[in-house]
Amino acid sequence: MRFIPAARSSAWWLLAGASSILISVLMWIIRFVLLHQPFTGMHAFRFMILAVVLSFLFGFAGWIGAQRLWLLSNAGIVIGLILMAFYSRDLTGWQDLVSFFVFLEAVALSFIVGSIVEGAFLIWRLARR
């Protein structure tokens, strides 16, 4: 995993900032373009805050050395955004809420899996010593 910065590197914060911008824009595209919802500053701001919180939470995990957790969590965000876009098509009624919950489920599941993988590697490293 050479493309992932080292623990305690300032590159994690740059990566988290870039990730939060990218996630915000993708969520806005899904909400306001794919779902044809009218643009509201409040919803855009809330999506941006969610993206910033997730990006910096996972960036902090990478900064402290949990690189597998960071990698799997970001993979979950990507999968969640794809599923969010997929579930927002051709639905009636609650499509924005359903697609958002699918996104949150994918992110939560990837965080849980990443935590389990990171814990297993920690146990393996401690047992090897």
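Second entry:
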Amino acid sequence: MPLARGVFTISSSHSSDNGGFSFDSDMSLPARDPRCDIYLYAKRDVVGLSSPNRLSAGLRKTAFTKKNEKNVETIQIKSGDRLTVKTMYGHAEIAIKYIRRVDLDATAAIEYIFYPANYAK
């Protein structure tokens, strides 16, 4: 049985309460929180997910895998994408439900299933 599953909304505003997400804690939190596994970023023509260690040394390191991109620390996303996220305490299978943009701000709804490191199939 996976540790957690559900849908969360993440914001490109890194300091907001949903600027990041922790899979093992099953909660939204600011992107710079030490428990954060992923955060959303938005640039002019790109929306993506990134590893918190890219914001600051000492934060968690996460790796993303999608099709031909394997174990990267930052990855562009679009609605419908499916990815694997390797975290400090296991891995998550995620699906991007939707992305909404207003200028340089973005939010995304992400469906996930988290499997702890000791998960046995």
